[in-house]
Amino acid sequence: MKRRITAPVAIGVLVGGCATDASLPPGAQHAMDHFTKAALRAHMRYLSDDLLAGRGTGTRGQELAAKYVAEEFEAAGLEPAGVNGTYFQRVPFRQIIVDPTKCEVSITRDGRKSPLKWGEDFIMGGAPLSPDASVEAPVVFVGFGVVNRDRHYDDYAGIDVKGKIVAMIGGAPSSFPSEERAHYASSREKGREAATRGAVGIISLRAPDAEQILPWSRTVVGVEMPAFRWLDANDVPNDTFKEIKAAATLSTPAAERLFAGAQKSWADVLKDAGAGKPQALALPLSARLHAVSRHAAVSSPNVVAVLRGSDPALSKEYVVYTAHTDHLGIGRAVNGDTIYNGAVDDATGITALIEMARAFASLPAPPLRSVMFLAVTAEEKGLLGSDYYAHFPTVPIQSLVTDLNMDGASVFYTFKDIVPMGAEHTSLNEVVTRNAARLGLAVSPDPMPEQVGFIRSDHYSFVRQGVPSVNLLEGLQAKDPKVDGRKFIENWIETRYHSPSDDMDQPLNFDATIQYMQIGFLIGYDVAQDRARPVWKPGDFFGNLYARK
């Protein structure tokens, strides 16, 4: 039976019984009455249908999804906020399709050259600056490849890597605070540090615990799909370092073999990494990396719409909601299925974005600030659509007061807590806490810091431009005592994440989605009504790094 959540009692039943109509801001209940399971299910079913062929970036399926979103925004009465009076901002890309049959990684030790095997020992993407790129040089191990001067941590201490290939473990020291750890774990920051120090290539070493983040077999499938970089006005791809000629990732068994005959064993390296000890040593070998790929120019749209605010001054500022239209498209068959539908990732988020727009548009009076709804492309390819928008916004970047990202709106289980990734760095923490209390929800820290989730979704593109931002996630505390939230999500990652089985045939709980929509609405509405804009906390790591002066 389909049930519409309309009464204050229904909200209390849904999220824990603490909310009352009087506790909600005026007009909020009216807007939240528009969240229905039927509408959520209908959007999600269309967006994840085989017809859209997995919504791969730059494909017809992703174009259809973007067009669908734009039409829903127009039907809700939102203004177009893209380019040239449209709902669209086209993003120019360089598409890079690696050719595994021509790629090579080989190790030379004691004069003997040993080739590694694609998919078993190594994987590599194509080089963004050249379709045929290679490098051969001695290999130096540099721990995590991280330098954090504020914490007096330096994996490069005492070693010269100029003209060398640097080998590094994925991730960053667990002693760093969760989201700071995520920042330093990013390939962008590691590549920048390596290039600055004169390295010419990178070998990423896969530690055993990486299987908990994404199984190696799924990683192989992913790298064989097209990669992308957005292009600036001079056709230069984003976040490229010309000093780094080529890069590869080794599987855990291959990483272990790399340390044969070295001063430290792989086991000792992992032990010191787990203890957060900086480490660097020259390995008694050299490596050749050869990356071959096909390059093509393609484009794909961001979709942008605005509900204009009611205050003459504050209407020039924007609360932004984001989600991504793309998924992985067509890939290697798994159990006979080649379509990576992306139902949870991220048809749920786009569904939430559409219904959030309809809810705001239904308010008796618009909030003081304008509210922007931004459906971005190429999130799965490195947050590219949101990063492009954050670099080339269709409104002044200083007018964006916050980004509230909805990547994977909850469809797993009704929950008792939320994880507002990034909120603790800004005054948004108080906004989130206040509105969670209205709905009887607890606020929890990142329960899976090893997933480095803070840098893996579109809000981080706005953080890097100094905009206080939050990625809203359900917590691990399920309302049903028979559901173990951690086990549920870990099992979903293992069996369905970035797999064709992420489709509408999996168990879906739209009561959880309505919960998620309610808290997401209240946070954004609160910010849109508050004359004080969110600010970075004094001395915050990300505020110091990115806040606009």
Structural features:
single chain; 549 residues; alpha/beta; Aminopeptidase; Glucose Oxidase, domain 1; 17-stranded mixed beta sheet; 16 helices; 30% helix; disordered N terminus
Quick recap of the structure?
By secondary structure, the protein is an alpha/beta fold. The chain has 16 helices and 21 strands.
Characterise this structure:
- The longest helix has 20 residues, at 510-529.
- The chain is α/β, with parallel strands linked by helices and 549 residues long.
- It has helices spanning 8-15, 28-32, 37-47, 60-75, 178-185, 187-196, 216-224, 252-258, 266-274, 343-361, 384-391, 428-438, 459-463, 485-495, 510-529, 541-546, and strands at 79-80, 88-98, 104-109, 112-115, 122-123, 132-141, 147-148, 153-154, 165-169, 201-205, 227-230, 246-250, 281-307, 318-324, 329-334, 337-340, 370-376, 400-405, 417-421, 442-443, 469-474.
- The protein folds into 2 domains: 37-75 and 308-546, Zn peptidases (Aminopeptidase, 3-Layer(aba) Sandwich); 96-295, Glucose Oxidase, domain 1.
- Helix 10 packs across helix 15 and helix 12 (428-438) packs across helix 15 (510-529).
- 30% of the residues lie in helices and 23% in strands.
- The strands form 3 sheets. The protein has a 17-stranded mixed sheet that branches. Strands 7-8 form a two-stranded antiparallel ribbon. It has a two-stranded antiparallel sheet with strand order 15-16.
- The protein is built from 16 helices and 21 strands.
- Residues 1-22 have low confidence and may be disordered.
